[in-house]
Amino acid sequence: MNRPTYTFELPMQVRDYECDLEGIVNNANYLHYLEHTRHQFLLREGISFVQLHRQGVDVVVARITISYKTPLQSDDEFVSCLNVSKEGPKYIFQQDIYRQPDGKPVVRARVEAVCTMEGRLCDYAPLMDIFGKYLK
What we know:
Blueprint: E1 8-13, H1 27-44, H2 49-54, E2 57-68, E3 77-87, E4 90-100, E5 105-117, E6 120-122, H3 125-131
Antiparallel strand pairs: 1-3, 2-5, 3-4, 4-5, 5-6
């Protein structure tokens, strides 16, 4: 299957406890997958949420729009992908999840995040320095 190119891809596997009575991943767990992907992307770029918070800087989700395409089941392997862009003060993470090995789309999500410093909306320059090379 032909899919877009992404800035970051993270392979993962469904764990039994993430599934509901229907035997599929509970919808809320996809939010965890997406968040884990964003955190791993930031860590790869040398950004620690804990360290940012200690400096009074927080990157917080303002809105998530998610479309569920194909459910995952226990032990399914998948890849969680992201691209980042910027719209005004918002960082936009386009995040997609694909089942492996067939590449079938599982989730498409748009995550809007903002940066705050000591509770006030800000454009944190060091974050822009890092994200700048990826902005689409």
